[in-house]
Design goal:
The protein contains 14 helices and 12 strands. It is α/β, with parallel strands linked by helices and about 350 residues long. The structure holds guanosine-5'-diphosphate and manganese (II) ion.
């Protein structure tokens, strides 16, 4: 149940019955944060930034998800940081732990030999990626919403939003919005693409006729930047949308197409016998199954998640949206080069092969 604020503006009329009484934004939408109790300060930082830049004008709710109960301190402090309602949900074990067909010994063996792979040593990271790939949208509380905005602890939004991104998606017939597109570490997904190819052979009818496969397979704009990628047009070029930022329509993930795709990957075992990330899994799903014109690059939303910063390039946008294109207050090297100017960005490819600017 909702964590009621002490200081609600009860004088506001509410013409939208699906909204809580203090909510101003009119979309059926919520923020979603999967987070640990130990990440409270980081969660507060992200919320503070999102509230200042966007949500204080709309008061959309927040859904917090965790596989262990949230502490009273976590609930109290995040509910006081939020302008909207806050909900705290316990993830059922079956949605978090490896599914029954996963062989525990085989998983442990892979963990042992993956010490040099980013997060390869961590079992909980695999649970997290598996959850984000196939279970976040199945959490009961999200049945109440159409749109979600994924947020993570320790991120920062660099510009004022100045509009409601949920409304933007709905009015422009978009179902998914991203900010950063980069290359995945190849050693985390040795058999992912092979599995995806088998899926496309078994379920050709699920592949959208206006898909964005070219974004994740063609090579011609890559002048070997040091990525060990194949020259073959039918192989994966490792590009994906960075999923720690997502604004999207939950109904895509609830679709038969996406769930058939997810279950196929889940059966193959790579979430546990390798270290498949939810970013390439979401992304490949979107690129195969969604009309590419329903995918949107939010070029005007500045965003920072270690170690990458994305900021609008236009000086007009930067000034009018009060962007601050430098990270601060974090205890690591500051990276001020815009990610999209870096060779490991996949944005130029999206512009060329996705729904972006055509050139
Ligand atoms: P990175 O962004 O790939 O470096 O991974 P993060 O550590 O940021 O994890 C991604 C998201 O999952 C963040 O929102 C974390 O708070 C969350 N997360 C990661 N591991 C766990 C976990 O074991 N339990 C819970 N509840 N959340 C987790
Ligand atoms: Mn993160």
């Amino acid at each position: 149940t909702g964590h009621q604020k002490l200081s609600g503006n009860s004088y506001l009329m509410n013409p939208f019955p699906h909204l809580n009484k203090n909510q101003i934004g009119t979309e059926n939408a919520t923020m979603v944060m999967l987070v640990r109790n130990s990440e409270l300060e980081g969660a507060l930082q992200s919320m503070r930034s999102l509230e200042d830049r966007f949500n204080r004008h709309y008061k959309y709710p927040y859904v917090f998800l965790n596989e262990v109960p949230f502490s009273d301190e976590f609930k109290e402090r995040t509910s006081l940081m939020a302008s909207g309602e806050t909900y705290y949900e316990l993830i059922p074990e079956k949605d978090w732990l490896p599914p029954p067909h996963i062989d525990e010994d085989k998983l442990n063996q892979n963990i042992e030999k993956s010490q040099d792979i980013i997060y390869g040593w961590s079992k909980s990271y695999r649970n997290m990626c598996h959850f984000n790939s196939g279970f976040f949208y199945k959490q009961k509380i999200l049945d109440n919403y159409d749109y979600y905005f994924r947020i993570e602890p320790d991120v920062e939004y660099m510009c004022d939003f100045q509009y409601d991104p949920f409304t933007f998606l709905r009015e422009n017939n978009k179902d998914y919005g991203f900010v950063i597109a980069i290359h995945e570490y190849e050693n985390t997904i040795p058999t992912l693409w092979e599995t995806v190819k088998n899926f496309t052979k078994d379920y050709p009818d699920l592949i959208h006729p206006n898909n964005s496969l070219d974004f994740i397979t063609t090579k011609e704009v890559d002048i070997n930047y040091g990525f060990n990628i194949s020259d073959n047009d039918s192989e994966y070029n490792l590009c994906h949308f960075w999923s720690n930022f997502e604004i999207g329509n939950l109904n895509f993930f609830r679709s038969d197409a996406y769930n058939t795709y997810f279950n196929y990957l889940d059966q193959a075992g790579g979430f546990f016998y390798e270290r498949w990330g939810d970013a390439p899994v979401h992304s490949i799903g979107l690129n195969l199954l969604m009309d590419k014109n329903r995918i949107h690059h939010f070029e005007d939303i500045g965003y920072y998640h270690v170690p990458y910063l994305a900021c609008p390039t236009s000086i007009d946008v930067k000034t009018s949206k009060r962007c601050f294109c430098k990270t601060r207050g974090l205890d690591h090297d500051v990276l001020t080069t815009p990610i999209d100017a870096e060779p490991f960005s996949c944005l130029a490819r999206w512009w060329r092969y996705g729904s972006g600017k055509k050139f």
